[in-house]
Amino acid sequence: MYPTRRLIASYENGNYSVKLYSDGTKIKETDEDSFFAAFPDSIDLKITDFCDTGCPMCHEMSSPDGKAGNLDEPFLSTLRAGTELAIGGGNPLSHPSVVPFLWRMKRQGVICNLTVNAVHLKRERELVSELIGAGLIHGLGISLSRYDCETVNFARGYPNAVLHLINGVFEDYEKIADLGLKVLLLGYKRFGRGEDFFSSAVEDNMKRTRELLPTILDRFAVISFDNLALSQLDVRGMIGDEEYERMFMGEDGDASMYIDLVKREIAKSSTSKERFPLGNDIIPIFDTVRNK
Q1: Which of 38, 114, 275, 277 could be cross-linked to 14 through a Cys-Cys bond (beta carbons 3.0 to 4.6 Å apart)?
Q2: What is the reported pTM?
Q3: How far apart, in whole angstroms, are the C-alpha atoms of residue 272 and residue 288?
Q4: What are the sequence ranges of the domains in the chain?
C-alpha cells in the first residue's frame, strides 16, 4: 500500500502554478490558453560520462573512460526551489561528489531524482537506500533492459521507484504487469550508440509494443512516457485527444531542458543535435534553448 500523498513543493512559474506531490504527481494550472515558463520545471542533468555496463543502445555513448562533470557550476545556485533534476549519466553513483551535491540541492529546495542502471543498483543497493532514507533523492529511475526479479522486487518496495523501459529494447511487459509497479516508457533514441544498435529486430519489437500497449495500460500503478515514446507509440491515438491534452506536459524545451555537465552543453533534449554552451544563470540558459 502506497502512503497517502503529501504536497512537497508549490510555486509559480511564469503564467502558471505548479504543485508536486510525494507520490510523483505533478499538477500544472493556468487561467490562460497556454503555459509559458519563466524557468525550467525540470532538467535532465548528465553529471558523468563514466559507465562500465557497455549498453549497446546508449545514446550518451558512456564508457569506462568517461569523465565526470563539475557539480559546482555557478548556474546550479540559481535553480529555483521546486525545480526537478533528473540526474543521470553514465553512472551517476560513480561521481565522487554526488552525495555532497544532493545535500546541497536539498538545502536549496531542488527536487532531485536519480536514474541508475539495474546493474549499478544491485552493486550500490546500500548507498541508494541511504540516499532514499536521507531524503536526498525523491524519485528513483531504474533502467531495465530485461526482466530481473531482484530489481523488480526492489522497485516494488519503494513507492517512488520507476522502471525505465526503452521502446524496442524491453520485451518482458507481461512479467512486470499486475505488480503495482510504476513504469516510464522511453522512446528509442537513434543517437550515439543507439544509431548503430538499431535493427529490424528493434523495429519489430517497437511494433509489438505498440500493439500490446492498449492491453497493459491499466496493469501498472502508473505508466508514463517521454515525448519520443508518445510519438513512436501513438499514445494520442490510443487514449484520445481530450485525455492526451489533459495529461501532456509540453514539448521538449517548453518547460524542460537538457544539460550536459561533462561537455558543458545545453539543449532541448538529450538527442538534440543543436547544442549551446553552458552559462551561469538558469533563466538566460533556458531562454537560449527555448528560443531556438
Answers
A1: 38
A2: 0.94
A3: 14
A4: 7-290
